[in-house]
Please model this.
Amino acid sequence: MAITNPGAVLAFIAIFGALGDYRPEHGNHVGALVMVTGVAGGATSWWILVSAAVSHFRARINDRWLDRANHIAGVILIAFGALIYLNLALDTFG
Model:
């Protein structure tokens, strides 16, 4: 899931593009393989950690808790959207 997620794939591309001097030299296939394996392993480890946490706390999560978490996530997303529009407005008109 971590490797085939379009968001993760775009993040990998951004990470690889931003490496600069830390990227493997052209033709260094072992270095490139180590880098790709490290990023994929890190993403997979993240999903294993998230899955383990959800499995551990699954019995404690009820509908009320889930509704509250969804409302908090919604407020955070709205706040980020408002900040993006504010930044756009300041760049355009300021």
The mean pLDDT is 87. Residues 63-93 form the longest helix (31 residues).
